[in-house]
Amino acid sequence: MSQQAIWKELVKTSFRRCYQFPTTASHSWFPGHMHKGLGQIQRRMGNVDCVLEVHDARIPLSGRNYTFRETVNGARPHILVLNKQDLFPEEEKEAIKKKILANSPNISKVLFTNCKNRDCEGTAAILPTAARLVRDQQGRDGRPDSTVLVVGIPNVGKSTMINMLRGMHLRVGGRPAAVAAKPGWTKSVGERIRVCDRPLIYLLDTPGISVPFIKDMHMGMKLAACATLVDHLVGEDYIVDYLLYWMNINYNFSYVELMGLEQPEDDGSIMLAKSAIINKKFKKVKDMSRGAGHKTIPDQQAMAREFLKMFRSGKFGQVNLDCDIFSKISADRLHSQVSRGAKIY
User: Which 3-state string (H, E, C) describes the chain?
Assistant: First the structure.
């Protein structure tokens, strides 16, 4: 029996089959700038011709803010861009597109993109698709220029996409839309950014607006895993523990070798402690039993950050964290699939 088969049997017989959410985990993250940004979006809608919603491809359903549907509702074309496609299984893209379009009549088109890759076909198709949809709606009597509103939850690549589109179509450098590798960087709706001359198209960058209240904690943990929530507000150890649970039930054991372990672990805290010891990551803390003395313990926080960094960069393979939601993916497949790119033992 292969090591993969042995570990699968271990998960089936000994590991948890449901996740117990920590009672102290944060349920809400909706800072003041998000309320302000939502109001600014509503005031600018009169001049908007098309809506471009950017979301993380690894969570194609989870966390999409349906407040946008109410805020930007109307007859405007709505394009859903699922970014970071390099971290998502290629073979599932068509099924995901069909499912989203069937359940979201307000969406005109779904595109998969990698906005950090200048050769991405999906990214190159964004502006031509927007121009065609606006032209079909307005006819020949429309304005000579079009304004496309870019919306989405935090840290899904909205500003990066704007900068890439501007560079691709205008052949210019610079970053008119500020970017950062953390959620909540863009704080307000900016001025129109010219991204194409033929046809003349402007984009409006907006702050990432998260779901006002996370009722489904599975969704909340998936959002946190993809760095759309601030790590320390949710708890890095909680995020790691949830990802460990998800990877085990989906038989993705890539973390075992990468974290220096001998076999899969069911408990996030134990996994991080073992990994810290193996990788010789320790820290000194006060030893209350000795008064003013100190003791050395495994640095679990350092290993939690390393675990999240590897997951978010695709070291554990391509993943669809919403595979349990899509009805076309059967329960049998859910419990037998392995993330593409994950190492098979």
Answer: CCHHHHHHHHHHHHCCCCCCCCCCCCCCCCCHHHHHHHHHHHHHHHHCCEEEEEEECCCCCCCCCCHHHHHCCCCCCEEEEEECHHHCCHHHHHHHHHHHHHHCCCCCEEEECCCCCCCCHHHHCHHHHHHHHHHHHHHHHCCCEEEEEEEECCCCCHHHHHHHHHHHHHCCCCCCCCCCCCCCCCCCCCCCEEEEECCEEEEECCCCCCCCCCCCHHHHHHHHHCCCCCHHHHCHHHHHHHHHHHHHHCCCCHHHHHCCCCCCCCCHHHHHHHHHHHCCCEEEEECHHHCCCEEEEECHHHHHHHHHHHHHCCCCCECCCCCCCCCCCCHHHHCCCCCECCCCC
